[in-house]
Amino acid sequence: MEDLYRFPNMINTLQVVRCHFGLQPPGWHYPRHHHHLFELLYCSEGEVVQEMNRESITMRQGDWLLIKSGVRHQSSNLASVDYGYFNVHFDLDDTEIRSLLSTTPYRHIHHQDAEQSKLQFYLSELEAVMHRNRSMDTAKQEQ
Prior knowledge:
It is a single chain. The protein is an alpha+beta fold. It is about 25% helix and about 40% strand. It has helices at about 95-100, 110-115, 120-140, and strands at about 15-25, 30-35, 40-45, 45-50, 55-60, 65, 75, 85-90, 105-110. The longest helix has 24 residues, at about 120-140.
């Protein structure tokens, strides 16, 4: 029998490191650093100044920031209120997607643009998974 169509063998890996939600007080600062992973940040409350390669942006509630691997960056909460955030470091071996993510040192997605995407949906899904895991951990500890 002759093949009508043959799918190529595909193996793609997504590495996720240090995925968490956090809350930092006014005056908080994370020093300049870099890593060999992409970083995706979401500002859930307050605001924060992010500096990448000596260029600063202010993230406000609902904003997202994608930082390319290898880019030196730092964070500062210069506001008078807490800064709430979601943060994930990741890498992937899909060369096409990796190339798209690497076109600029960073990409700031303002909340107006993010609302038109599925980013908030995915964040809600992650939160739900984390809450389920936390509930399971609590139940195990009570046993």
